[in-house]
Design a protein that fits this description.
Blueprint lengths: L2 H15 L4 H18 L14 H13 L4 H20 L26 H13 L7 H14 L3 H5 L6 E2 L4 E5 L5 E5 L2 H13 L20 H16 L6 H14 L4 H8 L4 H4 L1 H17 L4
Antiparallel strand pairs: 1-2, 2-3
Helix pairs in contact: 1-2, 2-4, 5-6, 6-8, 6-10, 10-13
């Protein structure tokens, strides 16, 4: 095993001990294996972490660009390598993280597609009617109600435990990115759906997850996405809807109704207000459409 691979294994073990998501560890592992592979071509031994210089890292980054990878993919691979060298820096293996000197590819400024209030409510109302024969209709409705009614990330939704619910006061304790916790209010319809979900819940012994699969275990991120897509296609013929669409809708519809941007930031669990401000641009687009349609001088 090369010295570089040994430090990659050490870093991945640190991620696992730090309770990083399985998804993050899996992606970083794949990215770092490709990083080692680039420097192992032709049967060569890859450099040790201390031997990397700026030129070597730039050549690797240029190779990523030559593959016509999406900028989001390149940014993730660069983040994985930077984090690896941060780990080596903490362990005293290197004295400077040269990967941090590389220029991060800029992301194009794109706005997310957001369903309208009418589209969102029509879909959830159709689910509530129970027209589709499903083994866990109460769970499915609660899933939609919480994604839209509370603006949760899908990872936050499936990560909810029964101990995170304050049914009397109508609050959720949500664990967001980097294990940061926040309190989120639950609207009336979502609370009713949640009560029905809990009443129909059949967990295995010791399972504390709110949302369960058909075996009584915690519902996975992938399972939740599949449920959402199935309903969206079956009831509205829309294959583009995903969990984050409902989170975007939550924020956009609150903003359109006059909610304060900083309050929305807290509700969403954004570390930076700039992340939340993209919903301002969405709202301005809505205003421009109204203006173009209604103003006599438009």
């Amino acid at each position: 095993m090369s010295e570089l691979q040994r430090w990659i294994d050490s870093y991945l073990e640190e991620l696992t001990r730090g309770n990083s998501s399985v998804h993050t560890v899996r992606n970083y592992q794949a990215d770092l294996e490709q990083f080692v592979g680039y420097y192992s071509r032709g049967g060569l031994n890859p450099p040790e972490p201390k031997d990397f210089d700026q030129l070597m890292l730039r050549e690797w980054l240029a190779d990523l660009y030559s593959q016509d990878l999406a900028r989001t993919t390149i940014r993730r691979k660069l983040a994985a390598v930077r984090s690896l060298f941060d780990h080596c820096l903490r362990q005293g293996v290197i004295t400077l993280n040269r990967a941090k000197l590389l220029t991060t590819p800029r992301m194009p400024q794109s706005l997310p597609d957001v369903p309208t209030e009418e589209q969102t409510n029509t879909l959830i109302d159709e689910i509530a009617k129970g027209t589709l024969e499903r083994p866990s209709p109460e769970r499915d409705l609660a899933l939609f109600e919480l994604l839209y009614g509370c603006g949760l990330r899908v990872s936050e939704l499936v990560g909810l435990d029964t101990g995170d619910l304050d049914m009397a006061e109508g609050w959720l304790r949500v664990r967001g990115k980097r294990k940061k916790e926040r309190q989120v209010p639950v609207p009336r319809k979502a609370m009713n759906a949640l009560r029905a979900c809990l009443a129909a819940r059949s967990p295995l012994d010791g399972e504390m997850a709110v949302f369960l699969n058909h075996r009584g275990h915690r519902l996975t991120d992938r399972g939740a996405r599949g449920i959402l897509k199935m309903y969206s296609i079956a009831l509205s013929a829309d294959s583009s809807l995903h969990p984050h669409s409902l989170r975007h809708a939550y924020a956009t519809h609150l903003l359109s109704a006059g909610a304060d941007l900083r309050a929305i930031q807290e509700l969403l669990g954004h570390a930076s207000l700039s992340t939340t401000q993209k919903y301002t641009r969405l709202s301005l687009n809505d205003l421009m459409r109204v203006y173009d349609k209604a103003h006599p001088r438009a």
